Amino acid sequence: MAAKPDPNFKVVADNRKARYNYEIGEIFEAGLALTGTEVKSLRTGKATIAESYAHVDRQGEAWLVNANIPEYLAGNRFNHPPKRPRKLLLKSREIAKLSQAIEREGMTIVPLKLYFNAKGRAKLQIALGKGKKLHDKREVEKKRDWSREKGRLLRARG
Question: Is the pTM of this model over 0.85?
Answer without folding.
Answer: no
